[in-house]
Task: structure prediction
Amino acid sequence: MGPAFQFALVEYSKPYRNSRGRVGKGVEYKLEDMHIPAKHRELHKRILAARDQIHAHSDLTVKEAKLYVVNTASGKYASRVQKAIRGTEELSNIDSIIELIEQTLDSMYIEVKRLETALPINS
Result:
């Protein structure tokens, strides 16, 4: 379930981020946050930050690792400890994530209808 959930968060984030992937040079489009419901803005920001830092790019500095060196009877022993990041930290908020997506889409559908009615009619 973890990898599927992380994949879903990356896919959710794509329209809100510029991609450096195979998209050609030139203008890249991304959605603004205007359709994100106010009550879910912090969740939205956390999802995008997790996409940038954990799921898609792993921007955390060596996963915030710490190096420990201890003297033992047989010499120095070095070990590295890093944060355990599962990528499923928001899984407990799945109902809110679903509500965020549904309400965002509802707002976008209303905007599409508004834009369609503003189009001139050719006779």
